[in-house]
Inverse folding.
């Protein structure tokens, strides 16, 4: 802790001595810090929200199964794999798409 | 030893904002400006479903606030303080004496930091209010129109604001433009850096404000209006009023971007606020990232700003690859990207997610058996005779007796 404090004090002392030229540096790196912190914060918020939504979706599905409203759905990977395969099949064959839009 | 390390670190830092550092500051500045505009646009279009094609109007209002109001106020204060300025009352004097007057003002502001800060805050406050007023004026004919007609009205309003600026020299110097006093002249270093820091801070603050608003009941109401305004109207909500409020708020926030742009460049000319730059590019950012999603807007903004700056920096290298002038490449990319995104990813790079309300534990809500005591509230209302059901039930019970 002590070396860090000493380092900071030294930094400010030196900065104070040569303040006229160091204003720009301090603000420049503040700007870079803001530039970095903005996307990090936004991405963190986004991931947090998506995770909680996914958890609530899983809980809803589980409660539906428990009450017997719906059947257990297939695993997500299997579902997405089938969807991707279906799309590729539709692209290369001239048949009608397997998933018809309403 | 520690002092030597600190000195070493300081000496290794750039001592002046020039060259690559100037480019970084420039990118950060325009990134911050476009983040503010794109987030306000996302608030309007992505969440409330108002296709605002008039972002340029709101930005130009901010710039005109600085050129027409703040500059005049500054001159009045200076004359009051005994500083001698050239005449500036008539249109002719306003345009042709401006260079001298602004230079004199800058000299005064250099030694009066408080005046510079006060004028800057004044500009922001007035731009917010004027932006909200212009949002209200826009909303009068616009909120009752359907999307296509609304877009046409807003595009024409953006052009109209430019025409006003071009033909009334007392606003922004007409076609010649005008210098404005450097409100950060008191700052001993490069004023561009302080502008960039403030703009990025404003971008971050606007992100917080928009996020809070979108996660509030009002945000949910906005989304419901976007999905089906007839249904929302049928349950007694004032759809026109809500759309007007959204336009007013977003206009005020966008006007701040105009103020920051004017202060950064210290020059205002109406030609710098074309709708291609201040409307279509933010739209592309929004559509590329994904409407209705702040993270998507941010991603779109970062990608587009980086792309545009790369074109500018490497223009001589890229020029050899194309047969047409490189200045057209940006516009071609704008159109081509819009087409490509609309065909292959109409929901953007980060599609919109379900609405998330912070502080609510969804798992608990879903899992727990909600038991509502219906005996108390409905009966209480029926007993008072208020409401349709209560009245009917009362009559029925009387007949039974």
């Amino acid at each position: 802790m002590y070396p860090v404090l000493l380092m900071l004090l030294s930094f400010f002392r030196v900065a104070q001595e040569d303040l006229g030229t160091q204003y720009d540096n301090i603000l420049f790196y503040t700007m870079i810090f803001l530039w970095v912190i903005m996307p990090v914060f936004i991405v963190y918020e986004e991931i947090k929200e998506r995770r909680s939504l996914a958890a609530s979706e899983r809980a809803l599905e589980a409660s539906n199964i428990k009450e017997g409203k719906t059947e257990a759905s297939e695993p997500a990977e299997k579902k997405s794999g089938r969807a991707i395969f279906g799309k590729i099949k539709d692209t290369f064959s001239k048949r009608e798409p397997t998933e018809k839009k309403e | 030893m520690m002092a030597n390390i600190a000195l070493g670190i300081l000496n290794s830092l750039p001592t002046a904002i020039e060259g690559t550092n100037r480019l970084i500051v420039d990118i950060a500045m325009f990134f911050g400006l476009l983040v503010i505009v794109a987030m306000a646009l996302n608030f309007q279009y992505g969440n409330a479903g108002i296709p605002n094609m008039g972002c340029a109007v709101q930005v130009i209002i901010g710039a005109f606030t600085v050129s027409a109001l703040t500059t005049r106020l500054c001159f009045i204060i200076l004359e009051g303080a005994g500083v001698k300025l050239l005449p500036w009352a008539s249109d002719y004097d306003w345009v042709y004496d401006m260079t001298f007057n602004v230079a004199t003002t800058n000299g005064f502001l250099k030694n009066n930091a408080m005046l510079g800060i006060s004028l800057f805050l004044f500009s922001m406050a007035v731009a917010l209010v004027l932006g909200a007023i212009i949002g209200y004026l826009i909303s009068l004919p616009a909120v009752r129109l359907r999307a296509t007609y609304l877009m046409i009205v807003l595009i024409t309003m953006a052009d109209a604001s430019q025409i006003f600026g071009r033909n009334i020299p007392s606003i922004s110097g007409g076609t010649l433009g005008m210098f404005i006093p450097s409100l950060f002249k008191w700052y001993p270093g490069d004023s561009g850096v302080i502008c960039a820091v403030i703009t990025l801070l404003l971008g971050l603050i606007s992100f917080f404000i928009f996020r809070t608003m979108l996660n509030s009941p009002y945000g949910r109401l906005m989304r419901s209006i976007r999905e089906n305004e007839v249904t929302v109207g049928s349950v007694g909500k004032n759809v026109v009023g809500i759309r007007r409020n959204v336009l007013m708020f977003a206009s005020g926030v966008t006007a701040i971007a105009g103020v920051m742009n004017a202060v950064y460049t210290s020059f205002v000319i109406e030609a710098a606020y074309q709708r291609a730059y201040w409307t279509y590019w933010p739209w592309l950012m929004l559509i590329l990232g994904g409407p209705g999603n702040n993270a998507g807007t941010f991603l779109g903004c970062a990608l587009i700003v980086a792309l545009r700056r790369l074109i500018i920096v490497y223009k001589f290298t890229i020029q050899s690859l194309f047969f047409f002038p490189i200045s057209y490449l940006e516009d071609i990319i704008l159109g081509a990207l819009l087409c490509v995104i609309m065909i292959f990813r109409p929901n953007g790079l980060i599609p919109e997610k379900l609405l998330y309300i912070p502080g609510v534990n969804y798992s608990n809500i879903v899992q727990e058996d909600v038991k509502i005591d219906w005996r108390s509230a409905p009966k209480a209302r029926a007993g008072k005779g208020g409401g349709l059901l209560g009245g009917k039930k009362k009559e029925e019970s009387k007949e039974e007796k």
Observations:
- Chain B is about 70% helix and 0% strand.
- Residues 377-395 of chain B have pLDDT under 50 and may be disordered.
